[in-house]
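Q: what sequence does this backbone want?
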């Protein structure tokens, strides 16, 4: 009986030590997954713009779960400094209309709903104002005002796993540690 109690005590101590490590692994893995998903979406929008020879929009949306019909569907939300973790849309914009917030029939390329609580993803163009709307030209270049970076972090914590997703003026995307603070 004493051996059983000692074994349970040791197991409890080991479990107490392991929980913070598992939490850090969870946060690090989810941060990497979100960064990869967002980077992939930017590259998908850029590639679609070049291959379709038309402007393509990637925008923040709060209606990604809204069904697509011939008269309605998901739409962009343009509010400064909002969190992209609510989801985003990618769609063709043949007229390069920067005010277009609803994809035209047949122009929807993708809908992404990351659905990971406690994470934030905000655009920062360097001047402190966030964008909720990225547009790529027919050559795959982002608009000048869309160039900058996105801060991805877990809660309000300063963590080594927090990331900065950088979008250059020629459309290249890089992910760096948020603490480093410098985009290539």
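A:
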């Amino acid at each position: 009986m004493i051996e059983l109690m000692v074994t349970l005590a040791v197991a409890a101590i080991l479990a107490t030590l392991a929980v913070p490590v598992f939490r850090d692994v969870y946060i690090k893995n989810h941060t990497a997954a979100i960064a990869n998903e967002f980077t992939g979406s930017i590259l998908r929008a850029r590639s679609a713009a070049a291959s379709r020879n038309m402007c393509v929009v990637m925008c923040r949306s709060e209606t990604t779960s809204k069904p697509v019909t011939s008269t309605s569907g998901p739409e962009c939300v343009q509010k400064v400094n909002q969190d992209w973790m609510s989801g985003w849309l990618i769609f063709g914009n043949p007229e390069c209309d920067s005010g277009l917030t609803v994809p035209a029939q047949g122009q929807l390329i993708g809908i992404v709903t990351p659905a990971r609580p406690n994470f934030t993803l905000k655009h920062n163009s360097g001047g402190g104002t966030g964008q909720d709307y990225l547009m790529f030209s027919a050559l795959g270049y982002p608009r000048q005002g869309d160039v900058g970076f996105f801060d991805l972090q877990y809660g309000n914590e300063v963590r080594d796993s927090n990331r900065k997703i950088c979008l250059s003026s020629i459309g290249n995307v890089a992910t760096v540690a948020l603490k480093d603070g410098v985009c290539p």
